[in-house]
Specification:
This protein has 370 residues and is of the alpha/beta class. The chain folds into 3 domains: 120 residues, Beta Barrel (Elongation Factor Tu (Ef-tu), domain 3), CATH 2.40.30.10; 116 residues, Nucleotide-binding domain of ferredoxin-NADP reductase (FNR) module (Rossmann fold, 3-Layer(aba) Sandwich), CATH 3.40.50; 107 residues, Beta-grasp domain (Ubiquitin-like (UB roll)), CATH 3.10.20.30. Helices cover 27% and strands 29% of the residues.
Length: 370
């Protein structure tokens, strides 16, 4: 846990760093309007969005915000899912659970208060409820603080669809259940459409694949959203695939803490060195149904090359840990530096991260998801 003096020092540096802003800033100065204690080890932070940034901060249920915080001379970034719903809630709210040894999660839980200002990037992320409404029920799996994007999706799905929804929410014990009272109220208002099942380690043991099978038995053919600790997510996803549920109907969200700036810089230099033999002068990008030919300067990532020509490619943390810039390599060879989000299966399928990827051949073409 961070001491009071350390927390105050971080806040002072943060306020100093926000004294000036650039017209093309990636991060926006957002004022904290409220800090809500959710459980003994988690708090929600509510942000006020300036008038000039409201359009940029539109979001889809399930997306996240990226926060940048000065800490011991370093600029640390963390991604936190929005627990609010764009269809139900007026405010932007993220919920952060304290992590043992977590520098930023502990600082937020210990020191952040209403009136503080934090640098925040516009919402991003591919884990979200879409406007397309495929048939079948929606089944949500949230583990611990992984409830946050799932809760956003739940609220929006109830508001914008007529699909039945089931939430399976796993926690250590009853006192760890985030949004407990809010969930009770939502259940009471949607008794015919919403079912919530709590799985508590202290009572039921850990969630198992057979139990997942039992819980989804009446919802096969539905759409699944999973967020939580790695083993929890692996258990649920493996169980669903084992039941024959198609991978494209199973959506997962995995968050990890990015490396510190010096580690990231070292990894970037290593990737540049590995790609030093490249003679690539350009590559192709398909974005929003249009194909663009992009000039390339050796050493740049694909994302940097696109930004130089003002091509608005999706991106958020730009540190290889959020997945917002995922794209499919349709041809050519690439070199990937930091990757904290793509699984081995996704890499084998051809997915890469534009913010960490450099072309090695002259026939590179990537496509961003529609």
């Amino acid at each position: 846990m961070m001491s009071t003096s350390e927390a105050l020092a971080v806040q002072e540096v943060l306020q100093d760093s926000l004294s000036e802003s650039s017209p093309k800033q990636r991060y926006h100065r957002l004022k904290v309007t409220a800090v809500i204690e959710e459980t003994h080890d988690s708090k929600s932070v509510v942000f006020s969005i300036p008038e000039g940034a409201k359009e940029q901060f539109d979001y889809l249920p399930g997306q996240f915000l990226t926060l940048k915080v000065p800490y011991e001379g370093k600029q640390l970034t963390r991604c936190y899912s929005l627990a609010s719903s764009p269809h139900v809630d007026a405010e932007h709210k993220v919920t952060i659970k304290r992590v043992d040894g977590g520098r930023i999660s502990n600082w937020i839980n210990d020191a952040v208060k209403a009136g503080d200002v934090i640098e925040v990037m516009a919402p991003a992320g591919l884990f979200h409820l879409t406007h397309k409404t495929p048939p079948g029920d929606i089944v949500l799996f949230g583990g611990g603080s992984g409830i946050t994007p799932v809760f956003s999706i739940l609220k929006s799905a109830l508001e914008t669809t007529d699909r039945k929804i089931k939430l399976v929410y796993a926690n250590r014990d009853d006192q760890s259940v985030i949004f407990k009272e809010a969930l009770k109220a939502i259940i009471a208002e949607n008794i015919d459409r919403l079912e919530v099942v709590h799985v508590l380690d202290s009572v039921h043991g850990y969630l198992t694949q057979p139990l997942v099978g039992q819980l989804v038995e009446r919802h096969l053919g539905g759409e699944y959203f999973i967020c939580g600790p790695g083993p929890f997510m692996d258990t649920v996803e493996s169980a669903l695939l084992g039941l024959g549920e198609p991978k494209e109907r199973i959506h997962t969200e995995r968050f990890v803490s990015p490396p510190d700036p010096d580690q990231a810089e070292a990894a970037a230099e290593e990737a540049k060195a590995a790609a030093k033999g490249s003679t690539t002068t350009g590559f192709m990008v398909e974005l929003d149904g249009e194909v663009h030919e992009i000039a390339y300067v050796k050493g740049d990532t694909l994302l940097q090359a696109m930004q130089k020509v003002d091509l608005d490619a999706p991106a958020s943390c730009e540190e290889g840990m959020c997945g917002a810039c995922m794209c499919m390599v349709e041809s050519g060879e690439i070199q990937l530096a930091l990757n904290e989000v793509l699984s081995e299966t996704e890499l084998e399928e051809g997915w890469t991260l534009a913010c960490q990827c450099r072309p090695l051949s002259s026939d590179v073409k990537v496509k961003f998801p529609d």
